[in-house]
Amino acid sequence: MSSRMGIQSEEHRGQPRLRVPAMYTLLRVRPAGASRYCWTGHIYDISLTGMRFELDAPLEPGTRVEVRGMLPGMTHTLFRATGRIIRLHEDTPDVVPVRMGMTLDQFQSDIDRLRLADYLSKANLRAA
User: Fold this and answer.
1) What is the band of 93 on the pLDDT scale with cuts at 50, 70, 90?
2) pLDDT tens-digit profile of 69-86?
3) Burial bucket for residue 20 (CB in 10 Å: 0-12, 13-18, 19+)
4) Which residues of 44-80 are buried (b: 16+ CB within 10 A; e: fewer)?
C-alpha cells in the first residue's frame, strides 16, 4: 500500500506496521526513568504496539526505554511512549547505525496514543 511521501505498510507482523521514510522522522530515546534523552535516531516503521528504528548505539534486548517520536506529513505528528527493546536487526551491532525493534507498552498520555492512531488511520493502515 502506498501513500504520500512513499509511506507503505508491512503486513508480516502480528500488528500491521506502517513504513515511513526514515530521513523525515526523528526519534529521541532515553533509559526509562532518566531525566534527559541520550540518543537520537530515525523511525523505519511503526504501529500502535511497536516500531523499528535506528540509533548509533545498540541497546540490549529487554532494555526499558522512553521515546519521543516525530512522524512526517503535512503537519508533524509527535508522540511519547514507553516500551522495551525486543531485538537487534543487525548481525554485527558494532556497525552503526544499528536498527532495532521495540514494543510500545504505554503511551505517556491518551493524547499521544490518539495522535499515533490518527496518523496510522490517515495513512489507510488498520490500527488496533
Assistant:
1) low
2) 999 987 889 999 999 999
3) buried
4) bbbbbbbbbbbbeebbeeebebbbbbbbbbeeebebb
Q: State the number of CA atoms in the 13 A half-sphere of 116 facing the CB.
A: 26
The answer to whether 79 and 27 have CB atoms below 8 angstroms apart is no
Q: 26 to each of 15, 73, 77, how far by Cα in Å?
A: 22, 13, 10
Check the CA dihedral 116-64-9-24 and report its sign. Answer: positive
Place of cell 500500500: 1
- Contacts for 117 with CB less than 8 Å, ≥ 6 apart: 48, 127
Q: What is the pLDDT of residue 108?
A: 97
The CA distance from 19 to 3, in Å, is 10
Question: Alpha-carbon distance 45 to 116, whole Å?
Answer: 12
Q: Dig out the grid coordinates for 46 from the structure.
A: 511503526
